[in-house]
Amino acid sequence: MSYQDVKDKLHHGHRKVANNTYLAYENEFHGDYVIHPIIMKLHGNVVARFYPDHIELHSAGWHTVTTRSRLNLALRLAGIHGSISQYKYQWYIDTNLLNVVEFKDGMKISYTGEILSHPPIEVSK
Fold first, then answer.
1. What stretches of the chain show up as alpha helix (H) in DSSP?
2. Less Cβ around it within 10 Å: N or C end of the chain?
3. % of the chain at pLDDT higher than 70
């Protein structure tokens, strides 16, 4: 999938994507222009923003199994073959480009799976 696929899903009345999880538009003001990312909300908290060239992920301060599940759903909706997992109480994201990085709120990932906001780190086992 891509931004357009997520947009089409929203336009065809598929706002609810999971329990207590919905898609909607948001207005972002940038000086003289406005952009309209698609947001994914879990219990009213924004956990993902879909932009035309990337996705932005947020835990909204809730590092729970449900939040992680919705972030993984956002990755799938975006067509990114990757997942967020937990190791020793820390979240990590592994994308289809085999980058493993520590999850940070607000991190940005391109639709090809490239992590735009964090360099790769090694996970010791």
1. 3-11, 65-77
2. C
3. 90
Residues ≥6 apart with Cβ < 8 Å to 92: 84, 85, 86, 100, 101, 102, 103, 123
Domain ranges across the chain:
3-81+106-110
pLDDT value, residue 28: 83
Is 108:58 a contact under the CB 8 Å cutoff?
no
| Chain segment 59-114, per-residue pLDDT in tens | 999 999 999 999 999 999 999 988 999 999 999 999 866 778 899 999 999 998 88
The length of the chain is: 125
Burial 58-81 (b: 16+ CB within 10 A, else e): bbbeeeeeebbebbbbbbebbbbe
Helices 3-11 and 65-77, axial angle in degrees (round to 10): 100
